[in-house]
Give the backbone structure.
Amino acid sequence: MHSRFVSIALAVMLFISLTVAVGYAEYGTPYPEKPEQEAEITEPELLIFENIRYGEHDKQTFDLSLPVDAREEIGIVIYLHGGGWRGGDKVSVKKSFDTFQSNSDYATASINYRLVRDGKNDIYDIIDDITLAINQIKTFAASYSVNLTRVILCGHSAGGHLSLLYAYKYKDISPIEPVGVFALSPVPDLSLDVFFTENTLGDEEYMCNFMSRVFGEKITPENRSEFTALLDEYSPISYVSSETVPTVILHGENDRTAPFIGSQLLCEKLSEYRVNHELVVFEDTKHSLKSNKKNKQYADELMLACTKSWFGIKEKNEQ
């Protein structure tokens, strides 16, 4: 079951890149540009870097793949890992990221960020880390004569939420212009009642405690309504407009960790504002999308088609 688009290949060719005011000087001096070790070179010829630092915390690192021969403006796909904002690591998404890895037309990166743990860090720190990491990725690539001018954000679960939120709310401060987003099993609306009351992670009290750690606030079943405005402020659905970047969402219809209805409501709003989007529904699927191989293949092909369109990559016989 797919969206109202008859042919995504035709639809994505109509996508229009947005002009975004880019400014990032306020985020400070980048950390050292060169890694301690030389990059690995792979086939096709890519420079592969691992664990490049963009801050002093041990979680402030990223992996990066750059085309060897890129000497002009190109795009980059950046993956944000999931894990409920409190766990996960960029290493865990390597297989998921294989869809984009082997190419010579654009760069790819996977970011680690500070996790919400032991009363330390919160969602505000995570957002800061995304900006810092993209800033450093842009600077690092420039040191290899690669000019990154467009970014597609991609992530699963909490990473899907962060990808949508950053591409929608923070596009004007992004060091690289967001031109699209791929969200896998995201939480587009943090204030949805079912997210708290019917979640497979736990009951309402558990979910309130869970989100209390994410936001650094004391949220309880009794006072949750008092935090609706805060939850809405960090819900991607709150920032949909006619200028929202093209969006592809993959979601299992039986997902009760990141409720499927959230993606349905987001797509309704995207339709209302005539934003180009696609919802790929994984039937009889819960939070993980790995079990549905048929839909996974379609989704991979869709995301690659969108990537080429959003980055303006032409087939060799068209050039």
